[in-house]
Design goal:
Blueprint: E1 15-19, E2 36-37, H1 42-52, E3 56-60, H2 70-79, E4 84-88, H3 97-105, E5 108-114, H4 124-137, E6 147-151, H5 154-159, H6 161-166, E7 171-173, H7 184-199, E8 202-207, H8 218-228, E9 233-236, E10 255-256, H9 263-274, H10 277-292
Parallel strand pairs: 1-3, 2-10, 3-4, 4-5, 5-6, 6-7, 7-8, 8-9
Helix pairs in contact: 8-9
Length: about 290
Amino acid sequence: MQKDTRPKRIPEHSCDTHVHVFEPAQFPYAAQRAYTPGRATVAQLLAMHQSLGVGRVVLVQPSVYGTDNACLLHAIERIGQGRARGVAVVDLNTASDDMLAQLHAGGVRGIRLNLHVNSEAGGQTGLAQVQQQVSAVKRLVQWPSWHLQVHASLSVHVALLDTYASLGLPVVLDHFAGGAADTTEGHAMLKPLLHAMTTQPVYVKLSAAYRMPQGGDASALTQAFYQAAPKQVLWGSDWPHTGGAGGQGRNPEAVEPFRDIDNPQALAHITQALGSVAAVQQVLVSNPAHLYGF
């Protein structure tokens, strides 16, 4: 009888690589923003993680804070760098080396480029935005433990694969790399990304399956990414699950409710798709420990 190797619980030091904290009373949102989320505190985040058995976390700067990373740094300090890291948003054309050094000292290990909230026009806006920042992003090579994180559609990521390869940095793609519909076109777009993962340091976050295009299959994508590059796959909850997708059709004058997501079930779907204790250990513990320096 074949031994059942499927995971029964997540391992110690499992890392949630994609969460946000919102504290508008202490850290006001940027005046120019696409939406207004409610409050999501460090205490609430830690309680959610305790219920899942998660021990480590990566806080990601949300677009509503712009380039003011004070809330992010405060959250990392409260949790402690033994358990927490951050991905910041900065203008690399104006940020000084002293500012980057301060972010590094505060636990930041990456810079995020959010092309969804910054709007995409048939993929061309995203392509132009990233290509214009390539020279600036290359500054991060002086920080060998840093990476670039990009939130964009699958078509934009595929168009940018050569650009990513030129950076000399790991590149992390949010939310199943934008997801792929289970269609001939979706499979065709996914193929070059899977190949790139075998030849360059492109990571994919298994996060926010609910943001994928209609017809996307999170389990199939989880298996495809892991089979292509098992050391370059991460998991993130996307807590507290902001409501919209991108910067269009949202009202920044009204508080936007968070999505009601069953976090234990969402994590279970990922671990079941990975299929083995060894794969879960790789994705939830080993890969984030290597990338974020735990």
